[in-house]
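Recall the central idea of this unit: under ordinary conditions, the amino acid sequence of a chain determines the structure it adopts. In this exercise we apply that idea directly, starting from the sequence alone.
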Amino acid sequence: MIDKKHDRVKTTSSIEAFNQALQAPLSDLAEQTKHVFVTGAGGFLGKAICRLLRLANIKVTGFARGSYPELSQMGVTMVQGDITDFSQVKAAMQSCDLVFHVAAKAGVWGSKEDYFKPNVQGAKNIIQACQELAITRLVYTSTPSVTFDGIDEAGIDESQPYAKNFLNYYAESKAFAEQLVLAASQESPLLKSVALRPHLIWGPNDPHLVPRVIDRARAGKLKLVGKEDKLVDTIYVDNAAYAHILAAVALGKANPACSGKAYFISNDQPITMAAMLNHILGCVDLPPVTKRVPSVVAYAVGATLEWLYKLLNKKQEPIMTRFVAKQLSTSHYFDISAAKRDFGYRPLISLEAGMAQLKASLNS
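Accordingly, the structure predicted from this sequence is:
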């Protein structure tokens, strides 16, 4: 539980520790790197990575579909383009020596082409541009969903195989892209790559998880799925960005242990979904969620809605899908020992301190 009385002390301590811990890896990265390319720079995680890079005065080119003045003000050179257009990607990557490929189409609803074109073709374009421009380091943002087969994932590590039966095209496309990225470094020693799998990224200015939870709670539509509360891993956005920096530094070494590998990363604080949702709701003084729906009912509703939406050719996401029903009723927490061992990752901002930051942001 979060101790509200000591929120300020815990937050200050964690933020200070975070800033101190950043100094060494950012200094190392600045020595290794002249110019960094960040895809999806306008996204939640992409912005956090750009911010850390600019703290070290590292030159950054950001690539995104939209316009993001706040990144330009940060000192990021922004290029507006399409990740599926190779010529645009290659042109934007000129003179870069490190790539963070964060861009992806996320979500749980859409056609196969909707996801495979940006996620798989986009990854292919990044890999090809790295090869043609002699860029030697690539950090790819993947997802734990690549291993999710609809059953509990309790403390699994990277030996877990890719899912045999994907419940949506997002997970399938990310698994496909992850394999391409890792294979690229295994096929050629010139390109070193690593894939990171953050789970449920959240924090101040989160445009996804936090507003969705709050909006559904205010509309009276937020419910828990299943009779039993299962543990899940989450990750505070700055911890996720920090892990990307550490992985990039590791790739810059002569014989990086992480090259060609995928890693789960998290806050290393498994928490029940109910507790996580209620911490978020508590940040805006909303009552805790208590209503439940049986997992079999949620799955049946999801399957039915998917069928109806396809029949009616509806583009918006159904309120429930089979994937969401399974995600909300199963465990998702991971052994991050490999990330700790191979590139020194440790979550620096605790769930408690992160929630204090989130609350301050939501109420500012």
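The chain has a mean pLDDT of 92.
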